[in-house]
Design brief:
Blueprint: H1 2-20, H2 40-45, E1 48-51, E2 60-65, E3 68-73, H3 76-91, E4 100-103, E5 109-113, H4 141-153, E6 158-160, H5 173-187, E7 192-197, H6 201-206, H7 216-232, E8 238-241, H8 258-269, E9 275-279, H9 293-298, E10 309-314, H10 329-332, E11 338-343, H11 359-366, H12 379-382, E12 385-389, H13 402-416, H14 422-433, H15 442-468, H16 497-501, E13 507-508, H17 527-532, H18 542-545, E14 548-549, H19 560-584, H20 591-623, H21 638-651
Helix pairs in contact: 7-8, 11-14, 13-14, 14-15, 15-19, 19-20
This protein binds 4-O-methyl-alpha-D-glucopyranuronic acid.
Length: 672
C-alpha cells in the first residue's frame, strides 16, 4: 500500500516536471512560414467567399456578417490573398470576432527574379540547384506548387524563371514548351511567368547577322518570337533584359540607346499586354566612378521609354552592398516607370551561412526621401513595381537556412505594402515559422522565444555591416563575394576592392563629393549638399562619399581609424551575443532547426573574425597605426587570410566538409 502510494507520488512529480518543461515540436524548416497556420483548404472551407467586381482585382475584404466570416475580393487572386491574410491573422491572434480588414497591394508588379541557368546552376544561389530542374525530363510539379503557395501567401504575383545573364536557348521551342508547363501551374496561384532574354538571341537562334533594334529583320524576329511565346502562354508577362552590362551585348553595340532596345521589345509584346523590364545595372571599366553611371546613361532617356517598358533599378548605385545609399536614379527619373530590384539572395551578406535579416535594409531604402517631388517623396513612392532576386533552390527548405526564409517573406510583405515596418514583418515571420513548444503558454513563448529572436533579426543586418564594411566602406570582397580581399588590386579596376576603399597612408574612402566624382550632385537638394558636407554626411556613409584622413575625428571623438576598428569588433561581439542568446533558446526550438542555426552562427562568427582580421590587418599595414586599446587583438596573419580567400574563391563557396557543409577555418591557420 505504502509502496504504491510512493510510486503514485513519484509518477505525479515526473508528470508535473514534464508538463512544466516545454517540449519542442519537431520541424525541419520545410514548411517555411506556413508552418504554424491552419491549412489553406481548411480556412477556405470555413469562410463565405464572393468575387465583388466593385473591388480592385487584387484587393480583398475580410469581415464578419450574419454570424459568418466572409472573404470578398475583386478576383480569384484577391480571394487567395484574403484567405492567406486570414491565415496569418489567425496565427497573430488578430482574427477574433468582428474582424474587418480590407487591403490591396501598393504595386501591381511584385516579382521574384530567379538567376537560374539552364544547366541547373544558380548564379549567386546558395540553396542547391535550380528549383525548376531545367535538365530533368519532367518539371518538379510538387515543388512548383509549394512555391506557388508560398508566393501567393505573401502576395507575390510574378516570377522571372531564368538568369538575367540569359542563355538564348530559353527561347527555343523546347524551352518555350517547358516554360508553358511551369506557367500553367504558377497561373493557379496568381503568378505570371516572365523570361530573361539574351540580346543576341536572333543571332544565336536564327543566324541573323545583327541585333540592331532598328533593323527591320531583327524587329520582325522579336515579333514572331513574341507570337510564338504567347501562343503557348497566353498570359505571359514579358521580358527582363540585362543589356550592355557586364559583357552582355545590347543596343549600344549598334550605336542605339537603351530606349531603342527596350521599345523594340516593348512593341513586340504590346499586342498581348506584355511588358519589358529593362535593367539599369550598367557600368563600364573606364568610368571614374561606377556609382555615377546609371544616372549618366538613363537620365538623358527620361520620357523616351514606351508605356509598357519599366526600368528596373538596383536599390543602391553600386551592387547590393550591405549598406549603400539609395540609387540616385530614383530621384532623377520623372517620366519613366521605375521598378525596384532588391536582392533576397545574400550574395554580399554571407550567402546562406549568415543570419542577416534584410527587412531593415529594404525599409531603410524604401523610406529614404529622394526629394524628387519636394520633401516627402520616398523611394517607395517613386517606383511603381518591385522585384527581388530570389534565394530559392532545390533544398528542402528552399533557402538553405531557416533564417534566410525570413528574407523571402519580408520581400513579399514589403512588395505588398512598403509602409510595413521591418520589425512587424520579423515578428510575423517568427510566429508563423516556429511552432510553440507543447506545454508552453503563449506568454512564456512570447517572452522567452519570440522577443529574443526578433531582437536578433532586427540587429542582424547592422552586425554584418559592422564586421564586413562599416562607416560607408563597400565592395571589399574577394572573387566569390563571400570573404574579404581588401588587398586585391589586380584586373579590371572597378572589380577590385582597392578601387572602392582607396586606402593609402594618408587616408581612406571614395571621394564622391563635388571635389571628387561629384556623385553627390546626382541627388536632389538638400541631400546633395548634406552628403557633400562632412558636417551633415551620415557617418554610416562617410567613406562612401568622402576620402578621409585616418585621424579625422568623428562624432564619438574617436578617429576614423579607431572607429573602423571598433565597428569590426562590435560586429563580432554582436554575433557572439546572437550565439549566446541562441544557446539559451534550445529548449524551445526543434532540434533540427536549433542545430542548423547554432552551426551557422558559429560559421558567422568565424567569418566575422575573418573579415576583421583581413580588413583591419590590411589597413594597418598601410597606415601603421595601433589598434585602439578597447579593441581585441587580431587573430590571423594576412598571409593565411590571402590563402583562405584563394581557396574559398576557387571552391566558389566557403570551404566545405565531406558532407558538403561549409566549415570553419582549419585550426592550422589560426594563431595559437
Ligand atoms: C546576374 C553582380 C553579380 C552578378 C550579377 C550581376 C547582375 O555583378 O555579382 O552575378 O549577374 O550583379 O545583377 O546582373
Amino acid at each position: 500500500m505504502r509502496k504504491s502510494f510512493f510510486l503514485t507520488v513519484l509518477a505525479g512529480a515526473a508528470l508535473l516536471a514534464a508538463c512544466s518543461r516545454p517540449a519542442p515540436v519537431a520541424q525541419d524548416g520545410s514548411d517555411l512560414w506556413l508552418a504554424a497556420g491552419r491549412p489553406y483548404a481548411d480556412i477556405l472551407a470555413s469562410v463565405e467567399t464572393t468575387i465583388d467586381p466593385a473591388l480592385p482585382a487584387e484587393a480583398f475584404h475580410i469581415y464578419d456578417a450574419d454570424g459568418q466570416r466572409h472573404v470578398a475580393a475583386g478576383s480569384e487572386a484577391g480571394l487567395r490573398y484574403g484567405v492567406y491574410a486570414l491565415q496569418r491573422a489567425e496565427v497573430l491572434g488578430q482574427a477574433g470576432p468582428g474582424m474587418d480588414v480590407q487591403e490591396q497591394p501598393r504595386y501591381a508588379l511584385r516579382l521574384l527574379n530567379h538567376w537560374d541557368n539552364l544547366d541547373d546552376t544558380v548564379e549567386r544561389g546558395y540553396a542547391g540547384e535550380s528549383m525548376w530542374e531545367w535538365t530533368s525530363p519532367t518539371i518538379p510539379e510538387a515543388r512548383i506548387r509549394r512555391y506557388g503557395e508560398l508566393c501567393a501567401s505573401v502576395g507575390l504575383n510574378g516570377a522571372v524563371l531564368n538568369n538575367v545573364n540569359s542563355n538564348p536557348l530559353i527561347l527555343d521551342a523546347e524551352h518555350i514548351a517547358r516554360v508553358a508547363k511551369i506557367a500553367d501551374i504558377l497561373r493557379e496561384y496568381g503568378i505570371k511567368t516572365y523570361l530573361s532574354i539574351k540580346w543576341t538571341s536572333p543571332i544565336a537562334l536564327s543566324g541573323l547577322k545583327s541585333g540592331d533594334p532598328l533593323n527591320p529583320q531583327v524587329r520582325q524576329w522579336w515579333k514572331d518570337k513574341a507570337a510564338e511565346i504567347y501562343k503557348a502562354i497566353p498570359d505571359f508577362g514579358g521580358f527582363l533584359v540585362k543589356a550592355n552590362s557586364e559583357g552582355q551585348a545590347g543596343p549600344q553595340d549598334y550605336g542605339r540607346t537603351h530606349a531603342d532596345g527596350a521599345n523594340m521589345l516593348g512593341e513586340a509584346v504590346a499586342p498581348y499586354g506584355g511588358i519589358v523590364m529593362w535593367r539599369a545595372f550598367v557600368y563600364s571599366p573606364t568610368s571614374p566612378d561606377r556609382a555615377n553611371q546609371a544616372v549618366e546613361e538613363f537620365l538623358p532617356l527620361d520620357g523616351k521609354f514606351a508605356d509598357n517598358v519599366i526600368v528596373q533599378i538596383k536599390n543602391g548605385p553600386v551592387d547590393f552592398q550591405p549598406r549603400e545609399p539609395f540609387s540616385p536614379l530614383f530621384g532623377q527619373l520623372k517620366d519613366t516607370q521605375m521598378m525596384m530590384e532588391f536582392q533576397i539572395t545574400q550574395e554580399y551578406l554571407g550567402f546562406s551561412n549568415h543570419l542577416a535579416y534584410l527587412g531593415t535594409m529594404w525599409e531603410e531604402c524604401l523610406q529614404s526621401d529622394t526629394y524628387r517631388d519636394g520633401p516627402g517623396t520616398p523611394v517607395s513612392k517613386t517606383i511603381s513595381a518591385i522585384a527581388g532576386v530570389a534565394n530559392t533552390g532545390q533544398d528542402a527548405n528552399f533557402c538553405g537556412y531557416v533564417f534566410a526564409q525570413a528574407n523571402w517573406y519580408a520581400f513579399g510583405r514589403l512588395a505588398w505594402d512598403p509602409e510595413l515596418s521591418a520589425e512587424q514583418i520579423a515578428d510575423e515571420w517568427i510566429r508563423q515559422t516556429f511552432l510553440k513548444p507543447d506545454g508552453m503558454t503563449d506568454k512564456a513563448f512570447e517572452g522567452k522565444f519570440i522577443e529574443p529572436v526578433r531582437d536578433i533579426l532586427m540587429a542582424s543586418r547592422e552586425a554584418v555591416v559592422d564586421y564586413e564594411m562599416p562607416v560607408g566602406l563597400h565592395h571589399l570582397f574577394g572573387g566569390t563575394h563571400y570573404g574579404p580581399a581588401p588587398w586585391d588590386r589586380l584586373g579590371r579596376p572597378d572589380w577590385t576592392p582597392a578601387y572602392y576603399h582607396q586606402a593609402d597612408s594618408a587616408g581612406i574612402g571614395f571621394d564622391r563629393t563635388r571635389s571628387g566624382s561629384d556623385n553627390v550632385d546626382q541627388y536632389n537638394e538638400p541631400l546633395a549638399s548634406q552628403y557633400n558636407d562632412l558636417a551633415t554626411c551620415p557617418e554610416n556613409l562617410l567613406l562612401w562619399f568622402h576620402h578621409m584622413p585616418w585621424d579625422y575625428q568623428m562624432a564619438s571623438g574617436r578617429t576614423v581609424w579607431d572607429e573602423i576598428c571598433l565597428h569590426y569588433d562590435a560586429g563580432i561581439r554582436q554575433v557572439e551575443a546572437f550565439r549566446q542568446t541562441w544557446a539559451g533558446l534550445k529548449p524551445y526550438v526543434a532540434p533540427a532547426l536549433w542545430e542548423e542555426t547554432a552551426r551557422k552562427l558559429e560559421i558567422q562568427q568565424h567569418d566575422g573574425e575573418w573579415w576583421r582580421d583581413a580588413n583591419v590587418g590590411y589597413f594597418q599595414q598601410i597606415n601603421g597605426l595601433p589598434l585602439p586599446a578597447d579593441v581585441r587583438p587580431l587573430d590571423t596573419p594576412i598571409d593565411s587570410l590571402i590563402y583562405r580567400q584563394v581557396r574559398s574563391d576557387r571552391l566558389g563557396m566557403p570551404i566545405h566538409d565531406e558532407n558538403n557543409r561549409p566549415i570553419i577555418v582549419a585550426p592550422r591557420f589560426r594563431r595559437p
